[in-house]
Amino acid sequence: MKITAITNARVFDGEQVIEARTVVLDGAGIGTVGGPVPPGATVVDAGGGTFLPGLIDSHVHTDLDGLRLALRFGVTTELEMMGHWTPEERAAVAGDDVADLRSAGMGITPPGGHPSEYGPPADAFPDDGDHPHDGPPPGYAFPFCSTPAEAAKMIEQQVADGYDYVKIMIEDGTVVGHPGLPVISDDVLTAAVREAHRHGKLAIAHATTIAGARRAVRAGIDGLGHLFADGPATPGIVADIAAAGTFVIPTLTVLSSATGHTGARFAADERVSSKLSSQWLDALRASMNVYPQGDLNDALGAVAALHAAGVDILTGTDVSEPDPAFGGMAHGASVHHELQLLVTAGLTPVQALRAATSTPARRFGLTDRGRITPGARADLLLVDGDPTTTIADTLSIRAVWRRGVRQTPA
Ligand SMILES: [Zn+2]
Fold first, then answer.
1. Residues 360, 314: contact at Cβ < 8 Å?
2. Ligand 1 centre from 316 Cα, in Å?
3. Per DSSP, which regions of 96-144 are E strands?
4. pLDDT tens digits, one per residue of 315-361
5. Which residue, 1, 112, 176, 330, is the most exposed by fewest CB within 10 angstroms?
6. Helices vs strands, H then E, count in the chain
7. From the CA of 58, how far away is ligand 1's center (Å)?
8. For residues 263 and 96, which has the higher predicted lDDT (pLDDT)?
9. In which residue ranges of the chain is CATH 3.20.20.140 found?
10. Ligand 1 mean position to 403 CA, how many Å?
C-alpha cells in the first residue's frame, strides 16, 4: 500500500486548526494524524501551507465534466440537487479523476412546475455526438406529481434507482424569471417529506421566498437548498428555521448571479481562470440577472442571522452547465467564491470552511469524509497560505487527493 506523509502543515480538520503538523495517508484512507512519519513513506513537505478535508459542494447539477472540473479545485464531493444518471453513468463516477457524487435524481414538482420551464436537464438524454444536449426526444414526459400518491410512487422509484435524497420544488417563478408557475400543494409537499423519511432519505426543498421556506419548514423538511431571496430575513422565519433544526444551503453565488452580479471579478483571479476552459470562463463572467429587483445584501444579512441563531450553513453553488444563461458559476471554482461570500456575510473563515467540510458531511450522513481524522477517506486539499484567516487562500491549491490518489496538476 502506498503511504504518503504530509509534514509541516497547518491542519484544519474540518472543525478547527489542530496541533498536529503531520498527516499520514494509508492508501485510500487517512492513517495517523500527528504521529511519526512511517519508514518508506513518500513525504510531501507542506512548507507551512494548510491541509484541509476535500471540499463539498452541497448544491450542483452535474455530469462527468462537471465532476472532473470540481476535483481540480479541490472539491472532492458534489451533491446534486436534481439531475438524471443512468446506472452506467453513475458507475463511471468511480474513477479517480472525478469528484464523488450524490444525487437527488429528479425533483418533486407539479405539472408545469419548476424547473420544467427550462426543459429537462441537459444531461437527461444521450449525447448523439452531433447535437449535444439538444433537448428531449419527442414524447418525453417531465416527471410531474399531481397527488400525494404520485409523489410516493416517484420517490419509491427514485430510491429503487439508487438516488440518495429527495428534492422538492416550492417555486412560483418570481425569483427565477418565470412568474406564475404552478406551485406544489401542501398535501403533496407533506406527503413527499413523509415518504422521503419513510425511505430513510433526507428531504430538501427548493424554496426562494420566505413564504416558501416557511411552508417547507412546516412540512418537516430537513434542509433548504437555497436561501429565500425576496426580502430581508424576518425574525419569525429565522426562529422557525432554527427551532426546526433545518439546515440551509444559501447558494449566495447563484443569488448573486440572479440579482445581476457577474462572476467577472472572481474570474479575474488567475488561480481561477488558469483552471477553466474559455467556455467556462465565458459562463463565469456572465450573470443570470433573472431577479434584478432582488438585493444580495438581504441574503448576506439572512445568512448572518441564521448562523447567529445556530442554523447549520452548508456551502453550495447551484452550478450547472457552461452556459451564460446559467452564468456566474463554474464547477469547483464557485465553492471558493461561495466561501468568500459566506465570509462577507459575517462568518469567520473557520466557520465558512466548516460549511464546506464537516457540516455537509454530518448533515448528509457522509460519515467517511469532511474531516481529517484516522479512518476517513483521503479526500484532501493542500493550499499555500492560511485560509483559516484569509479565506481566499483556498484558491492557492498545491495538491488535491481523491481517495489517496494525488491528482496531476492541471
Ligand atoms: Zn439547483
1. yes
2. 9
3. 100-103
4. 999 999 999 999 999 999 999 999 999 999 999 999 999 999 999 99
5. 1
6. 14, 16
7. 10
8. 263
9. 55-367
10. 27
Instruction: Specify the pLDDT at position 136.
Output: 56
Residue 78: C-alpha distances to residues 56, 93, 107, 248, 304 (Å):
6, 11, 17, 16, 24
Burial class (CB in 10 A: 0-12, 13-18, 19+), 377: buried
CA 192–ligand 1 middle distance (angstroms): 18
Closest CA to 55 of 388, 280, 284, 358: 358
How far is ligand 1, taken at its centre, from the CA of residue 30, in Å? 32
Q: Could you tell me the distance, in angstroms and rounded to a whole number, from the CA of residue 59 to the centre of ligand 1? A: 6
Closest by CA position to 122, among listed 131, 110, 114, 113 = 131
Q: Where in the chain is the domain with CATH 2.30.40.10?
A: 1-53+369-410
DSSP line for 187-252: HHHHHHHHHHHHTT--EEEEE-SHHHHHHHHHTT-SEESS---SSSPPHHHHHHHHHHT-EE---H
CA of 134 to the centre of ligand 1 (A): 20
Ligand 1 centroid to 319 CA: how many Å? Answer: 7
Instruction: Find the mean pLDDT for residues 63-90.
Output: 94
Ligand 1: distance of its center to the CA of 34 in Å? 39
What spacing in Å lies between the alpha carbon of 82 and ligand 1's midpoint? 7
- Model confidence pLDDT, tens digit, residues 259-284: 999 999 999 999 999 999 999 999 99
* Sign of the four-CA dihedral 364, 366, 367, 373: negative
Average pLDDT for residues 35-50, to the nearest whole number? 96
CA of 137 to the centre of ligand 1 (A): 23
If you measure from the C-alpha of residue 251 to the centroid of ligand 1, how many angstroms do you get, rounded to a whole number?
Answer: 9
Ligand 1: distance of its center to the CA of 61 in Å? 6
Question: What would the grid cell of residue 307 be?
Answer: 448562523
Q: Which residues pair with 101 in a beta bridge?
A: 78
Q: Report, as an integer, the average pLDDT of 115-137.
A: 58
CA of 324 to the centre of ligand 1 (A): 15
Q: Which CATH superfamily is domain 55-367 in?
A: Metal-dependent hydrolases (3.20.20.140)
Instruction: Judge whether residue 410 has pLDDT over 70.
Output: no
User: pLDDT of 13-30, one tens digit each?
Assistant: 999 999 999 999 999 999
Confidence at residue 116, expressed as pLDDT on a 0 to 100 scale: 86
